[in-house]
Protein backbone atom coordinates (compact mmCIF):
# COMPACT_ATOMS: atom_id res chain seq x y z
CA UNK A 1 0.00 0.00 0.00
CA UNK A 2 1.40 3.40 -0.92
CA UNK A 3 1.92 5.75 1.98
CA UNK A 4 -0.38 8.44 0.58
CA UNK A 5 -3.21 5.95 0.21
CA UNK A 6 -2.60 4.90 3.76
CA UNK A 7 -2.74 8.44 5.07
CA UNK A 8 -6.00 9.00 3.25
CA UNK A 9 -7.39 5.77 4.65
CA UNK A 10 -7.04 7.04 8.22
CA UNK A 11 -10.58 8.12 9.05
CA UNK A 12 -11.21 11.80 9.44
CA UNK A 13 -13.06 11.21 12.70
CA UNK A 14 -9.92 10.09 14.52
CA UNK A 15 -8.95 12.63 17.11
CA UNK A 16 -5.41 13.07 15.87
CA UNK A 17 -3.48 14.83 18.63
CA UNK A 18 -1.18 16.67 16.24
CA UNK A 19 -4.07 17.74 14.01
CA UNK A 20 -5.97 18.98 17.05
CA UNK A 21 -3.24 21.53 17.68
CA UNK A 22 -3.68 23.08 14.22
CA UNK A 23 -7.35 23.54 14.90
CA UNK A 24 -6.29 26.21 17.40
CA UNK A 25 -5.10 28.46 14.58
CA UNK A 26 -8.38 30.35 13.91
CA UNK A 27 -8.97 30.78 17.64
CA UNK A 28 -5.46 32.16 17.99
CA UNK A 29 -6.19 34.74 15.31
CA UNK A 30 -9.48 35.63 17.05
CA UNK A 31 -7.77 35.94 20.41
CA UNK A 32 -5.12 38.24 18.97
CA UNK A 33 -7.82 40.52 17.59
CA UNK A 34 -9.56 40.46 21.00
CA UNK A 35 -6.31 41.39 22.74
CA UNK A 36 -5.71 44.25 20.34
CA UNK A 37 -9.21 45.61 20.93
CA UNK A 38 -9.00 45.13 24.70
CA UNK A 39 -5.58 46.77 24.98
CA UNK A 40 -6.96 49.96 23.48
CA UNK A 41 -8.82 50.31 26.79
CA UNK A 42 -5.65 49.71 28.80
CA UNK A 43 -4.09 52.64 30.60
CA UNK A 44 -1.33 54.22 28.52
CA UNK A 45 1.07 54.26 31.46
CA UNK A 46 1.29 53.62 35.16
CA UNK A 47 1.36 50.86 37.68
CA UNK A 48 -1.17 48.40 36.27
CA UNK A 49 0.26 48.71 32.79
CA UNK A 50 3.73 47.95 34.11
CA UNK A 51 2.51 44.90 35.98
CA UNK A 52 0.79 43.42 32.95
CA UNK A 53 3.83 44.24 30.83
CA UNK A 54 6.07 42.45 33.30
CA UNK A 55 3.79 39.42 33.41
CA UNK A 56 3.57 39.25 29.62
CA UNK A 57 7.33 39.39 29.01
CA UNK A 58 8.12 37.00 31.88
CA UNK A 59 5.52 34.54 30.61
CA UNK A 60 7.35 34.33 27.27
CA UNK A 61 10.50 33.30 29.13
CA UNK A 62 8.57 30.88 31.33
CA UNK A 63 7.17 29.17 28.21
CA UNK A 64 10.80 28.25 27.48
CA UNK A 65 10.93 26.41 30.80
CA UNK A 66 7.83 24.48 29.77
CA UNK A 67 9.77 23.17 26.78
CA UNK A 68 13.04 22.29 28.46
CA UNK A 69 11.75 21.16 31.86
CA UNK A 70 8.10 20.29 31.32
CA UNK A 71 8.48 18.48 28.01
CA UNK A 72 12.10 17.35 27.98
CA UNK A 73 12.62 16.89 31.74
CA UNK A 74 15.92 18.84 31.84
CA UNK A 75 16.15 21.25 34.74
CA UNK A 76 17.53 24.64 33.75
CA UNK A 77 18.37 27.15 36.45
CA UNK A 78 19.61 29.74 33.99
CA UNK A 79 16.43 31.05 32.39
CA UNK A 80 16.99 34.54 33.85
CA UNK A 81 20.43 34.55 32.22
CA UNK A 82 18.88 33.89 28.79
CA UNK A 83 16.25 36.52 29.55
CA UNK A 84 19.11 38.90 30.42
CA UNK A 85 21.06 38.09 27.24
CA UNK A 86 17.98 39.02 25.19
CA UNK A 87 17.47 42.19 27.22
CA UNK A 88 21.11 43.27 26.93
CA UNK A 89 21.09 42.50 23.23
CA UNK A 90 18.32 45.03 22.83
CA UNK A 91 19.77 47.43 25.40
CA UNK A 92 23.31 47.55 24.01
CA UNK A 93 22.29 47.22 20.36
CA UNK A 94 19.60 49.87 20.37
CA UNK A 95 21.33 52.47 22.55
CA UNK A 96 25.12 52.18 22.13
CA UNK A 97 25.12 50.97 18.56
CA UNK A 98 21.94 52.68 17.40
CA UNK A 99 20.65 49.53 15.73
CA UNK A 100 16.96 49.24 14.89
CA UNK A 101 15.07 47.53 17.72
CA UNK A 102 14.28 44.44 15.69
CA UNK A 103 17.89 43.91 14.65
CA UNK A 104 19.08 44.32 18.23
CA UNK A 105 16.37 41.90 19.37
CA UNK A 106 17.46 39.34 16.78
CA UNK A 107 21.06 39.62 17.99
CA UNK A 108 20.03 39.22 21.63
CA UNK A 109 17.82 36.24 20.87
CA UNK A 110 20.55 34.73 18.69
CA UNK A 111 23.17 35.04 21.43
CA UNK A 112 20.78 33.53 23.99
CA UNK A 113 19.94 30.65 21.65
CA UNK A 114 23.61 30.02 20.93
CA UNK A 115 24.42 29.72 24.64
CA UNK A 116 21.30 27.57 25.14
CA UNK A 117 22.53 25.15 22.51
CA UNK A 118 25.96 25.14 24.16
CA UNK A 119 24.37 24.21 27.50
CA UNK A 120 22.43 21.48 25.71
CA UNK A 121 25.70 20.17 24.27
CA UNK A 122 26.97 19.80 27.84
CA UNK A 123 24.19 17.25 28.34
CA UNK A 124 26.20 14.81 26.21
CA UNK A 125 28.60 14.33 29.11
CA UNK A 126 26.44 15.35 32.05
CA UNK A 127 22.98 14.47 33.24
CA UNK A 128 20.60 15.18 36.11
CA UNK A 129 22.07 17.12 39.02
CA UNK A 130 25.38 17.75 37.29
CA UNK A 131 23.69 19.35 34.33
CA UNK A 132 21.62 21.48 36.74
CA UNK A 133 24.87 22.60 38.39
CA UNK A 134 26.28 23.61 35.01
CA UNK A 135 23.20 25.75 34.32
CA UNK A 136 23.69 27.46 37.71
CA UNK A 137 27.33 28.14 36.90
CA UNK A 138 26.34 29.58 33.55
CA UNK A 139 23.79 31.80 35.28
CA UNK A 140 26.47 33.09 37.67
CA UNK A 141 28.93 33.71 34.86
CA UNK A 142 26.37 35.78 32.95
CA UNK A 143 25.64 37.87 36.05
CA UNK A 144 29.38 38.42 36.61
CA UNK A 145 29.93 39.45 33.00
CA UNK A 146 26.94 41.82 33.01
CA UNK A 147 28.23 43.42 36.22
CA UNK A 148 31.94 43.61 35.42
CA UNK A 149 32.36 44.09 31.69
CA UNK A 150 31.58 47.75 32.16
CA UNK A 151 32.80 48.83 28.72
CA UNK A 152 30.13 46.74 27.06
CA UNK A 153 27.31 46.44 29.58
CA UNK A 154 27.63 49.71 31.58
CA UNK A 155 28.14 47.51 34.66
CA UNK A 156 25.95 47.76 37.78
CA UNK A 157 24.49 51.11 36.64
CA UNK A 158 22.62 49.32 33.90
CA UNK A 159 21.44 50.73 30.59
CA UNK A 160 18.99 53.64 30.48
CA UNK A 161 16.69 55.10 27.83
CA UNK A 162 16.29 51.97 25.76
CA UNK A 163 14.07 52.89 22.82
CA UNK A 164 11.07 50.91 21.64
CA UNK A 165 10.62 49.68 18.10
CA UNK A 166 9.09 52.09 15.64
CA UNK A 167 6.72 50.87 12.98
CA UNK A 168 4.91 53.45 10.90
CA UNK A 169 1.35 53.87 12.18
CA UNK A 170 1.70 51.58 15.23
CA UNK A 171 2.87 54.17 17.82
CA UNK A 172 4.68 51.55 19.88
CA UNK A 173 6.14 54.31 22.04
CA UNK A 174 2.70 54.37 23.69
CA UNK A 175 2.48 51.95 26.61
CA UNK A 176 -0.80 50.36 25.60
CA UNK A 177 0.39 49.76 22.05
CA UNK A 178 3.65 48.20 23.16
CA UNK A 179 1.73 46.04 25.63
CA UNK A 180 -0.46 44.83 22.77
CA UNK A 181 2.68 43.85 20.86
CA UNK A 182 3.99 41.90 23.88
CA UNK A 183 0.66 40.15 24.32
CA UNK A 184 0.52 39.14 20.68
CA UNK A 185 4.04 37.70 20.89
CA UNK A 186 3.06 35.93 24.11
CA UNK A 187 0.04 34.37 22.44
CA UNK A 188 2.00 33.17 19.46
CA UNK A 189 4.63 31.70 21.80
CA UNK A 190 1.97 30.01 23.95
CA UNK A 191 0.30 28.59 20.87
CA UNK A 192 3.65 27.34 19.54
CA UNK A 193 4.55 25.67 22.83
CA UNK A 194 1.11 24.08 23.04
CA UNK A 195 1.33 22.82 19.47
CA UNK A 196 4.86 21.55 20.05
CA UNK A 197 3.64 19.21 22.78
CA UNK A 198 1.62 17.11 20.35
CA UNK A 199 4.15 17.29 17.52
CA UNK A 200 6.70 14.61 16.71
CA UNK A 201 9.50 16.66 18.28
CA UNK A 202 7.41 17.33 21.39
CA UNK A 203 6.61 13.63 21.77
CA UNK A 204 10.32 12.83 21.39
CA UNK A 205 11.10 15.34 24.16
CA UNK A 206 8.53 13.77 26.46
CA UNK A 207 9.89 10.32 25.68
CA UNK A 208 13.38 11.52 26.64
CA UNK A 209 11.93 12.95 29.85
CA UNK A 210 10.13 9.72 30.75
CA UNK A 211 12.76 7.15 29.76
CA UNK A 212 15.94 7.98 27.90
CA UNK A 213 16.89 4.36 27.25
CA UNK A 214 13.51 3.45 25.81
CA UNK A 215 13.52 6.66 23.78
CA UNK A 216 16.85 5.78 22.21
CA UNK A 217 15.66 2.29 21.29
CA UNK A 218 12.55 3.85 19.71
CA UNK A 219 14.84 5.66 17.27
CA UNK A 220 14.97 9.01 19.08
CA UNK A 221 18.31 10.81 19.05
CA UNK A 222 18.28 11.67 22.76
CA UNK A 223 21.21 14.08 22.63
CA UNK A 224 19.88 16.04 19.65
CA UNK A 225 16.46 16.24 21.30
CA UNK A 226 17.93 17.71 24.48
CA UNK A 227 20.02 20.22 22.54
CA UNK A 228 16.92 21.34 20.64
CA UNK A 229 14.95 21.68 23.89
CA UNK A 230 17.68 23.83 25.44
CA UNK A 231 17.93 25.89 22.26
CA UNK A 232 14.18 26.57 22.01
CA UNK A 233 14.02 27.33 25.72
CA UNK A 234 16.86 29.85 25.52
CA UNK A 235 15.35 31.40 22.40
CA UNK A 236 12.08 32.04 24.24
CA UNK A 237 14.01 33.34 27.25
CA UNK A 238 15.90 35.79 25.06
CA UNK A 239 12.72 36.88 23.28
CA UNK A 240 10.95 37.62 26.57
CA UNK A 241 14.01 39.51 27.83
CA UNK A 242 14.33 41.58 24.66
CA UNK A 243 10.71 42.71 24.92
CA UNK A 244 11.23 43.37 28.64
CA UNK A 245 14.06 45.78 27.84
CA UNK A 246 11.79 47.69 25.45
CA UNK A 247 8.97 47.69 27.98
CA UNK A 248 10.85 49.28 30.85
CA UNK A 249 13.54 51.26 29.00
CA UNK A 250 15.99 50.44 31.79
CA UNK A 251 17.84 47.22 32.62
CA UNK A 252 20.52 46.29 35.15
CA UNK A 253 22.35 43.03 36.01
CA UNK A 254 20.39 42.34 39.23
CA UNK A 255 17.17 41.96 37.22
CA UNK A 256 18.63 38.82 35.64
CA UNK A 257 20.39 37.23 38.60
CA UNK A 258 20.08 33.69 39.95
CA UNK A 259 17.16 34.63 42.20
CA UNK A 260 15.16 35.61 39.10
CA UNK A 261 15.85 32.19 37.56
CA UNK A 262 14.26 30.69 40.66
CA UNK A 263 11.29 33.05 40.31
CA UNK A 264 10.80 31.99 36.68
CA UNK A 265 11.09 28.33 37.66
CA UNK A 266 8.56 28.83 40.46
CA UNK A 267 6.15 30.47 38.02
CA UNK A 268 6.38 27.44 35.73
CA UNK A 269 6.02 24.87 38.50
CA UNK A 270 3.23 26.75 40.26
CA UNK A 271 1.03 26.99 37.21
CA UNK A 272 2.01 23.64 35.75
CA UNK A 273 5.18 23.05 33.80
CA UNK A 274 3.54 20.51 31.48
CA UNK A 275 1.55 23.15 29.67
CA UNK A 276 2.19 26.67 28.38
CA UNK A 277 -1.24 27.62 29.77
CA UNK A 278 -0.07 26.50 33.19
CA UNK A 279 3.03 28.64 32.80
CA UNK A 280 0.87 31.59 31.84
CA UNK A 281 -1.32 31.07 34.89
CA UNK A 282 1.67 30.67 37.21
CA UNK A 283 3.34 33.80 35.89
CA UNK A 284 0.19 35.89 36.26
CA UNK A 285 -0.36 34.62 39.79
CA UNK A 286 3.19 35.21 40.89
CA UNK A 287 3.15 38.76 39.54
CA UNK A 288 -0.22 39.46 41.19
CA UNK A 289 0.24 37.57 44.47
CA UNK A 290 2.61 40.13 46.04
CA UNK A 291 0.04 42.83 45.23
CA UNK A 292 -2.80 40.92 46.82
CA UNK A 293 -0.76 40.15 49.92
CA UNK A 294 0.41 43.74 50.38
CA UNK A 295 -2.09 44.40 53.19
CA UNK A 296 -0.23 41.84 55.32
CA UNK A 297 2.69 44.27 55.59
CA UNK A 298 5.54 42.64 57.58
CA UNK A 299 4.55 39.02 57.26
CA UNK A 300 3.84 39.35 53.55
CA UNK A 301 6.97 37.50 52.39
CA UNK A 302 6.38 34.59 54.77
CA UNK A 303 2.78 34.15 53.63
CA UNK A 304 3.83 34.47 50.00
CA UNK A 305 6.49 31.78 50.43
CA UNK A 306 4.16 29.48 52.35
CA UNK A 307 1.43 29.83 49.72
CA UNK A 308 3.82 28.91 46.93
CA UNK A 309 5.22 25.93 48.85
CA UNK A 310 1.76 24.63 49.75
CA UNK A 311 0.52 24.81 46.19
CA UNK A 312 3.60 23.07 44.85
CA UNK A 313 3.55 20.31 47.47
CA UNK A 314 -0.14 19.50 47.11
CA UNK A 315 -0.42 20.07 43.38
CA UNK A 316 2.58 18.38 41.78
CA UNK A 317 1.17 19.12 38.32
CA UNK A 318 0.57 22.76 39.22
CA UNK A 319 -2.72 24.62 39.14
CA UNK A 320 -3.29 23.97 35.46
CA UNK A 321 -2.65 20.25 36.03
CA UNK A 322 -5.45 20.31 38.61
CA UNK A 323 -7.86 21.55 35.96
CA UNK A 324 -6.76 19.29 33.10
CA UNK A 325 -6.49 16.13 35.23
CA UNK A 326 -10.15 16.64 36.19
CA UNK A 327 -11.18 17.10 32.58
CA UNK A 328 -9.11 14.24 31.15
CA UNK A 329 -11.36 11.77 29.39
CA UNK A 330 -10.07 8.32 28.55
CA UNK A 331 -12.56 7.79 25.75
CA UNK A 332 -11.84 5.04 23.25
CA UNK A 333 -11.04 6.16 19.71
CA UNK A 334 -13.59 5.07 17.10
CA UNK A 335 -12.96 4.49 13.42
CA UNK A 336 -11.34 1.80 11.33
CA UNK A 337 -7.67 1.87 10.41
CA UNK A 338 -5.61 -0.11 7.88
CA UNK A 339 -4.02 -3.19 9.48
CA UNK A 340 -0.36 -3.36 10.41
CA UNK A 341 1.73 -3.81 7.27
CA UNK A 342 3.51 -6.80 8.78
CA UNK A 343 0.20 -8.61 8.59
CA UNK A 344 -0.14 -8.15 4.85
CA UNK A 345 3.39 -8.88 3.70
CA UNK A 346 4.70 -12.32 4.58
CA UNK A 347 8.45 -12.51 4.80
CA UNK A 348 9.62 -12.73 1.23
CA UNK A 349 13.24 -13.69 1.71
CA UNK A 350 12.47 -16.28 4.36
CA UNK A 351 15.51 -18.12 5.65
CA UNK A 352 18.14 -15.48 4.84
CA UNK A 353 20.18 -14.19 7.77
CA UNK A 354 18.43 -11.14 9.27
CA UNK A 355 20.53 -10.52 12.38
CA UNK A 356 24.04 -11.96 12.43
CA UNK A 357 26.13 -11.86 15.56
CA UNK A 358 29.66 -13.21 15.61
CA UNK A 359 32.06 -13.66 18.51
CA UNK A 360 30.13 -11.28 20.74
CA UNK A 361 31.79 -10.58 24.08
CA UNK A 362 30.91 -8.22 26.89
CA UNK A 363 33.02 -8.03 30.02
CA UNK A 364 32.08 -6.08 33.13
CA UNK A 365 35.44 -5.79 34.86
CA UNK A 366 36.45 -9.39 35.48
CA UNK A 367 32.95 -10.74 34.82
CA UNK A 368 32.45 -12.21 31.37
CA UNK A 369 28.74 -11.63 30.90
CA UNK A 370 29.12 -12.67 27.26
CA UNK A 371 32.06 -14.66 26.00
CA UNK A 372 32.31 -15.17 22.23
CA UNK A 373 28.67 -15.82 21.34
CA UNK A 374 27.68 -16.58 17.73
CA UNK A 375 24.03 -16.37 16.77
CA UNK A 376 22.15 -15.92 13.50
CA UNK A 377 18.46 -15.05 13.41
CA UNK A 378 16.96 -16.02 10.05
CA UNK A 379 14.28 -14.01 8.30
CA UNK A 380 10.78 -15.16 9.15
CA UNK A 381 11.93 -17.34 12.05
CA UNK A 382 11.19 -17.21 15.75
CA UNK A 383 14.56 -17.70 17.41
CA UNK A 384 14.66 -18.31 21.15
CA UNK A 385 17.62 -17.38 23.33
CA UNK A 386 17.36 -19.25 26.60
CA UNK A 387 19.53 -19.91 29.62
CA UNK A 388 19.48 -19.74 33.39
CA UNK A 389 19.23 -16.45 35.27
CA UNK A 390 22.40 -14.39 34.91
CA UNK A 391 23.60 -16.30 31.84
CA UNK A 392 23.87 -13.11 29.77
CA UNK A 393 20.61 -13.00 27.81
CA UNK A 394 19.68 -9.41 28.65
CA UNK A 395 23.28 -8.34 28.17
CA UNK A 396 23.12 -9.94 24.71
CA UNK A 397 20.06 -7.86 23.79
CA UNK A 398 21.58 -4.73 25.28
CA UNK A 399 24.72 -5.15 23.20
CA UNK A 400 22.73 -6.03 20.09
CA UNK A 401 20.60 -2.88 20.42
CA UNK A 402 23.60 -0.66 21.17
CA UNK A 403 22.91 0.18 24.82
CA UNK A 404 26.25 -1.49 25.70
CA UNK A 405 29.43 -1.41 23.65
CA UNK A 406 30.71 -4.93 22.99
CA UNK A 407 34.16 -5.90 24.28
CA UNK A 408 34.58 -7.90 21.05
CA UNK A 409 32.49 -9.23 18.19
CA UNK A 410 30.44 -8.00 15.25
CA UNK A 411 26.74 -7.25 14.77
CA UNK A 412 25.13 -7.18 11.32
CA UNK A 413 21.53 -6.40 10.44
CA UNK A 414 20.37 -7.36 6.94
CA UNK A 415 24.00 -7.55 5.84
CA UNK A 416 24.99 -4.11 7.23
CA UNK A 417 27.55 -3.82 9.99
CA UNK A 418 26.03 -2.02 12.99
CA UNK A 419 28.68 -2.84 15.60
CA UNK A 420 29.52 0.83 16.21
CA UNK A 421 26.07 2.35 15.53
CA UNK A 422 24.15 4.28 18.20
CA UNK A 423 20.93 2.70 19.52
CA UNK A 424 18.64 5.10 17.60
CA UNK A 425 20.62 4.39 14.44
CA UNK A 426 19.99 0.64 14.81
CA UNK A 427 16.31 1.31 15.35
CA UNK A 428 16.29 3.37 12.17
CA UNK A 429 17.64 0.32 10.33
CA UNK A 430 14.76 -1.78 11.63
CA UNK A 431 15.76 -3.27 14.98
CA UNK A 432 13.07 -3.08 17.68
CA UNK A 433 12.97 -4.38 21.22
CA UNK A 434 11.02 -4.66 24.44
CA UNK A 435 12.49 -4.66 27.94
CA UNK A 436 12.56 -7.25 30.71
CA UNK A 437 11.84 -4.44 33.16
CA UNK A 438 9.08 -2.51 31.41
CA UNK A 439 10.11 0.85 30.04
CA UNK A 440 7.04 2.77 28.91
CA UNK A 441 6.70 6.56 28.76
CA UNK A 442 4.74 7.11 31.96
CA UNK A 443 3.73 10.70 31.44
CA UNK A 444 2.00 9.87 28.16
CA UNK A 445 -1.11 8.06 27.01
CA UNK A 446 -1.12 4.54 25.59
CA UNK A 447 -1.68 5.96 22.10
CA UNK A 448 1.18 8.47 22.41
CA UNK A 449 3.51 5.69 23.56
CA UNK A 450 2.72 3.65 20.49
CA UNK A 451 2.83 6.71 18.19
CA UNK A 452 6.47 7.14 19.20
CA UNK A 453 7.06 3.63 17.88
CA UNK A 454 5.26 4.45 14.62
CA UNK A 455 7.39 7.60 14.27
CA UNK A 456 10.57 5.53 14.18
CA UNK A 457 12.89 7.23 11.69
CA UNK A 458 12.97 5.04 8.62
CA UNK A 459 9.39 3.85 9.05
CA UNK A 460 7.34 4.42 5.88
CA UNK A 461 4.74 6.68 7.52
CA UNK A 462 6.92 8.38 10.17
CA UNK A 463 6.44 11.84 8.64
CA UNK A 464 2.63 11.72 8.25
CA UNK A 465 0.80 12.59 11.48
CA UNK A 466 -2.56 11.10 10.49
CA UNK A 467 -0.99 7.85 9.29
CA UNK A 468 1.08 7.67 12.47
CA UNK A 469 -2.10 7.68 14.53
CA UNK A 470 -3.63 5.08 12.22
CA UNK A 471 -0.58 2.85 12.50
CA UNK A 472 -0.47 3.21 16.28
CA UNK A 473 -4.15 2.29 16.54
CA UNK A 474 -3.56 -0.70 14.27
CA UNK A 475 -0.79 -1.89 16.59
CA UNK A 476 -3.11 -1.40 19.58
CA UNK A 477 -5.82 -3.33 17.73
CA UNK A 478 -3.34 -6.14 17.25
CA UNK A 479 -2.57 -6.47 20.96
CA UNK A 480 -6.19 -5.77 21.95
CA UNK A 481 -5.68 -2.44 23.71
CA UNK A 482 -7.48 -0.02 21.37
CA UNK A 483 -10.06 0.66 24.08
CA UNK A 484 -7.33 2.01 26.38
CA UNK A 485 -5.71 4.28 23.77
CA UNK A 486 -6.48 7.51 25.61
CA UNK A 487 -5.58 6.28 29.09
CA UNK A 488 -2.35 7.25 30.80
CA UNK A 489 -0.10 4.23 30.37
CA UNK A 490 0.69 4.04 34.07
CA UNK A 491 -2.95 3.25 34.88
CA UNK A 492 -2.75 -0.07 32.98
CA UNK A 493 -1.95 -3.41 34.58
CA UNK A 494 1.62 -4.68 34.38
CA UNK A 495 0.66 -7.22 31.72
CA UNK A 496 -1.03 -4.61 29.59
CA UNK A 497 1.95 -2.28 29.88
CA UNK A 498 3.98 -5.11 28.35
CA UNK A 499 1.51 -5.20 25.50
CA UNK A 500 1.94 -1.44 25.04
CA UNK A 501 5.68 -2.06 24.69
CA UNK A 502 5.06 -4.78 22.13
CA UNK A 503 2.60 -2.54 20.24
CA UNK A 504 5.15 0.30 20.33
CA UNK A 505 7.71 -1.99 18.72
CA UNK A 506 5.23 -3.37 16.15
CA UNK A 507 4.05 0.10 15.11
CA UNK A 508 7.57 0.81 13.86
CA UNK A 509 7.21 -2.03 11.35
CA UNK A 510 10.54 -3.57 12.44
CA UNK A 511 12.64 -6.03 10.45
CA UNK A 512 13.69 -7.87 13.58
CA UNK A 513 11.90 -7.77 16.93
CA UNK A 514 13.82 -8.59 20.11
CA UNK A 515 11.65 -9.55 23.10
CA UNK A 516 13.40 -9.71 26.49
CA UNK A 517 11.44 -12.04 28.78
CA UNK A 518 7.98 -10.90 27.66
CA UNK A 519 6.38 -13.37 30.07
CA UNK A 520 8.20 -12.06 33.16
CA UNK A 521 5.77 -10.88 35.81
CA UNK A 522 2.66 -12.17 34.01
CA UNK A 523 0.13 -14.48 35.66
CA UNK A 524 -0.96 -17.79 34.09
CA UNK A 525 -3.88 -16.30 32.12
CA UNK A 526 -1.72 -13.49 30.81
CA UNK A 527 1.00 -15.94 29.84
CA UNK A 528 -1.59 -17.87 27.85
CA UNK A 529 -2.66 -14.71 26.05
CA UNK A 530 0.96 -13.80 25.35
CA UNK A 531 1.55 -17.25 23.82
CA UNK A 532 -1.42 -16.70 21.50
CA UNK A 533 -0.13 -13.24 20.55
CA UNK A 534 3.31 -14.61 19.74
CA UNK A 535 1.79 -17.40 17.61
CA UNK A 536 -0.16 -14.76 15.67
CA UNK A 537 3.02 -12.74 15.10
CA UNK A 538 4.80 -15.89 14.00
CA UNK A 539 1.94 -16.66 11.63
CA UNK A 540 2.53 -13.33 9.95
CA UNK A 541 6.15 -14.12 9.34
CA UNK A 542 7.72 -11.51 11.63
CA UNK A 543 11.37 -12.21 12.45
CA UNK A 544 11.66 -12.50 16.24
CA UNK A 545 14.39 -13.16 18.78
CA UNK A 546 12.72 -14.06 22.05
CA UNK A 547 14.55 -14.34 25.35
CA UNK A 548 12.84 -16.34 28.03
CA UNK A 549 13.37 -18.98 30.60
CA UNK A 550 9.76 -20.15 30.50
CA UNK A 551 10.21 -23.35 28.46
CA UNK A 552 6.51 -23.67 27.87
CA UNK A 553 6.34 -20.44 25.93
CA UNK A 554 9.54 -21.14 24.04
CA UNK A 555 8.38 -24.61 22.97
CA UNK A 556 5.13 -23.16 21.62
CA UNK A 557 6.76 -20.72 19.20
CA UNK A 558 10.46 -21.34 18.62
CA UNK A 559 11.83 -22.56 15.28
CA UNK A 560 15.37 -22.44 16.55
CA UNK A 561 16.93 -22.27 20.01
CA UNK A 562 20.27 -20.98 21.27
CA UNK A 563 21.25 -21.70 24.87
CA UNK A 564 23.59 -19.56 26.96
CA UNK A 565 25.27 -20.50 30.21
CA UNK A 566 27.73 -18.22 32.03
CA UNK A 567 27.93 -16.05 28.92
CA UNK A 568 28.88 -18.93 26.60
CA UNK A 569 26.82 -20.62 23.94
CA UNK A 570 26.34 -24.21 25.01
CA UNK A 571 23.81 -25.35 22.39
CA UNK A 572 22.26 -24.15 19.15
CA UNK A 573 19.77 -25.92 16.90
CA UNK A 574 16.22 -27.13 16.47
CA UNK A 575 14.02 -27.17 19.58
CA UNK A 576 13.89 -30.97 19.66
CA UNK A 577 17.66 -31.41 19.59
CA UNK A 578 18.43 -28.59 21.97
CA UNK A 579 15.85 -29.42 24.60
CA UNK A 580 17.02 -33.02 24.84
CA UNK A 581 20.70 -32.05 25.02
CA UNK A 582 22.09 -33.28 28.39
CA UNK A 583 24.30 -30.16 28.76
CA UNK A 584 21.27 -27.94 28.39
CA UNK A 585 19.25 -29.91 30.88
CA UNK A 586 22.13 -29.84 33.33
CA UNK A 587 22.61 -26.10 32.91
CA UNK A 588 18.92 -25.48 33.36
CA UNK A 589 18.36 -27.65 36.37
CA UNK A 590 21.80 -27.10 37.83
CA UNK A 591 22.52 -30.84 38.09
CA UNK A 592 22.68 -33.96 35.90
CA UNK A 593 19.46 -35.12 34.35
CA UNK A 594 19.17 -38.35 36.35
CA UNK A 595 19.41 -36.53 39.67
CA UNK A 596 17.01 -33.88 38.52
CA UNK A 597 14.35 -36.39 37.64
CA UNK A 598 14.83 -38.31 40.84
P1 LIG B 1 20.10 -12.78 32.16
O1 LIG B 1 19.34 -11.78 31.39
O2 LIG B 1 20.48 -13.99 31.37
O3 LIG B 1 19.41 -13.17 33.44
P2 LIG B 1 22.07 -10.69 32.41
O4 LIG B 1 22.49 -10.48 31.01
O5 LIG B 1 21.13 -9.71 32.99
O6 LIG B 1 21.51 -12.16 32.59
O7 LIG B 1 23.35 -10.72 33.32
C1 LIG B 1 24.50 -11.50 33.02
C2 LIG B 1 25.60 -11.18 34.02
O8 LIG B 1 26.10 -9.89 33.76
C3 LIG B 1 25.11 -11.19 35.45
O9 LIG B 1 26.14 -11.77 36.24
C4 LIG B 1 24.94 -9.74 35.76
O10 LIG B 1 25.14 -9.49 37.12
C5 LIG B 1 26.01 -9.08 34.91
N1 LIG B 1 25.65 -7.75 34.49
C6 LIG B 1 24.60 -7.42 33.69
N2 LIG B 1 24.56 -6.10 33.45
C7 LIG B 1 25.61 -5.57 34.14
C8 LIG B 1 26.12 -4.24 34.30
N3 LIG B 1 25.55 -3.20 33.70
N4 LIG B 1 27.22 -4.07 35.06
C9 LIG B 1 27.82 -5.14 35.65
N5 LIG B 1 27.39 -6.40 35.54
C10 LIG B 1 26.30 -6.63 34.80
MG1 LIG C 1 17.52 -10.91 31.70
Give structural attributes.
598 residues, alpha/beta, Rossmann fold, 6-stranded mixed sheet, 4-stranded antiparallel sheet, disordered N terminus, binds adenosine-5'-diphosphate
Please describe what this structure looks like:
The chain has a six-stranded mixed beta sheet with strand order 6-7-8-3-9-10, sandwiched between helices. The N terminus and C terminus are likely disordered. It is elongated and about 90 Å long. The protein folds into three domains: 212 residues, no CATH class; 178 residues, 3-Layer(aba) Sandwich (Rossmann fold); 74 residues, no CATH class. Helices cover 57% and strands 10% of the residues. The chain is α/β, with parallel strands linked by helices and 598 residues long. A hairpin with a 2-residue loop joins strand 9 and strand 10. The structure holds adenosine-5'-diphosphate and magnesium ion (MG). Adenosine-5'-diphosphate binds next to strand 2 and helix 18.
Cα-atom Rg, whole angstroms? 28 Å
Number of domains: 3
Structural class: alpha/beta
In round numbers, the mean pLDDT is 87
- The helix content is 55-70%
Total beta strand runs: 10
Poorly predicted sequence stretches spanning 5 or more consecutive residues: 1-13, 15-19, 592-598
Strands of the widest sheet, in order across it, are 6-7-8-3-9-10
Count up the helices: 27
Q: How far do the termini sit from each other?
A: 58 Å
Amino acid sequence: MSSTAEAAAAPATLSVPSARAWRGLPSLALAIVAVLVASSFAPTSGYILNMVMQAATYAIGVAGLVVVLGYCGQISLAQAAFFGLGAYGVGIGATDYGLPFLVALLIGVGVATGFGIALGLASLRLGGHYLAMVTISFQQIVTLVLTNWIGLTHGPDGIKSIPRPSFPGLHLDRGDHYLALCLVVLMVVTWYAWRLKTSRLGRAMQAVRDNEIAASTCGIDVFRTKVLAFGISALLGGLGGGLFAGAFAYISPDQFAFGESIVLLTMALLGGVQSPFGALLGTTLLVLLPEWLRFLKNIYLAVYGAAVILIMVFLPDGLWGLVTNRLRRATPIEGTVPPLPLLSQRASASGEPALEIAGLAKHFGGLKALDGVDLTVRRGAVHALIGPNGSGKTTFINVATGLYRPTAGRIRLAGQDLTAAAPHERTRRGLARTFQNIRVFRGMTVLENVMIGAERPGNDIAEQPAAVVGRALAALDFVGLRGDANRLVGTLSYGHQRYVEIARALAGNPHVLLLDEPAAGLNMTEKGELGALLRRLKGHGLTILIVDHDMNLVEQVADHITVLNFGRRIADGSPRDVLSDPDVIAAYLGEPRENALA
